[in-house]
Amino acid sequence: MANNMDDGIDAQCIIKEGDCVVMKRGDIFKAAQIQKKRKVIFEKQWLFLDNTIGELYGTTFEIASGGTLQPRKPKHTESSTEVKKAGTDNRNIVDDGRSQKLTRDDIETLKEQGLKGQEIVQQLIENSTTFTDKTEFAQEKYIKKKKKKYENTVMILKPSTRILAQMYHGREPGKICYLRYDSLAQMLTLANIHAGSKVIVFETCAGLVLGAVMERMGGHGSVIQMYPGGGPVRAGMESFGFPEHFHQTLHDFPLCKVQDLLGGRLSQDAPETDEAAPPKPEQQSPEAENMDTVPEAGRETEERDKRREDKAQERKTKMEEKRKKLLAAAALLEPRNADGLVIASRFHPCPVLLGLLKFMAPSRPFVVYCQYREPLIECYTKLREQGGAINLRLAETWLRHYQVLPNRTHPVLLMSGGGGYLLSGTTVLTSPAQPATGPAHRAEEPSPKRIKLQETDD
């Protein structure tokens, strides 16, 4: 029994063909898919990921000649770069560019001779005239910097919300509305995302927020993605590499049809629109009929008609599938009992929030992310005026990295200036306003006044 459990755990940690992975070198990440004999460019270098199949996630690979990857053998890097002598301070060191005896051509020659990154770093240390005069901390910093530049290694990681959020925020933050990974973690917590719930997601963050919600739910429950435009964007979600049963819980619904669904105008028996209907074949002229007598012309006409019919049938099939998906998503939204709402988009969140809150059940959490504070202040004011939400809270997330090393723990000098703003709250039922006169009004009066009214009536 234990062996079967171990085998199951190992199977999830082994890289297989077709898996979505994340390549890491230093602080640089890139998502890719494992396919044999397929070139992948990473940091201006072509790679082949064939040799990663069968290895464990988290393995570090060395880039060999031809772009092939070889698992890096474990070894003690400290022994090869061990330095016996170190200076007391760096005051007498002058950075004039003459301390290194090796030139760029010499380093390229070493690379052509087949020397690996660790050996090149050792050569740089031996040919530096000021290395032994540096302090121990400065020497470690120098070695770390040269390793990052000359060691040709790549680490293969399993995709996760944290890794993909760091990848997008580090390379293309504009695609995810500058959503930082700590803000994304706060959103998942405030919206109470868990397995078995029904969650509405509206985001324009390349599918990253959608993928994070689906990962937290674990393939159990329902996710309705509201999308603007012609179709949903799911590039970030596809980078997670979810299994098939995860995709069965995902539904999409166009934002432009929300008002029709709320007003009951989205009929399930409504006929298809004729916008995408294929053009009707034109009536053949007498000249075309005469051409049919020629065998070659008749054969070309038949092939052309057949292609036209195939395209029309394919278009009709796609429209029918799209209609079924639309009705399935509408059936989930119509009861208005969603368990959570997550909004993170570049559009103004106020009208979207007020419209989508109507699909939620009472006593359910919602969270809205925006890069700027002013749109969320407007949402806060509108919700306070119209009611239907309590425990409203507008907050800004803040994150700071620390370098934790012996005798030199301090905040990192370069850090993110802001992680955006989050508006969270809980939905409640709104009771209709009671009339100002009548028995109900008398029942709400203070007890002394109610007694006087009763005495007057007697």
TrEMBL record:
Function: Substrate-binding subunit of tRNA (adenine-N1-)-methyltransferase, which catalyzes the formation of N1-methyladenine at position 58 (m1A58) in initiator methionyl-tRNA.
Keyword terms of this UniProt record: Nucleus, tRNA processing
Protein name, entry field: tRNA (adenine(58)-N(1))-methyltransferase non-catalytic subunit TRM6
UniProt-annotated location(s): Nucleus
Keyword Repeat: no
GO cellular component: nucleus; tRNA (m1A) methyltransferase complex
Matches recorded under InterPro entries: TRM6 (IPR017423)
Record's keyword annotation contains Iron-sulfur: no
Compositional bias ranges of the Basic and acidic residues kind: 76-96, 297-321, 441-458
Subunit details: Heterotetramer.
Segments of this protein annotated with the region Disordered: 68-96, 268-321, 432-458
Biological process, per Gene Ontology: tRNA methylation
Protein family (similarity comment): Belongs to the TRM6/GCD10 family.
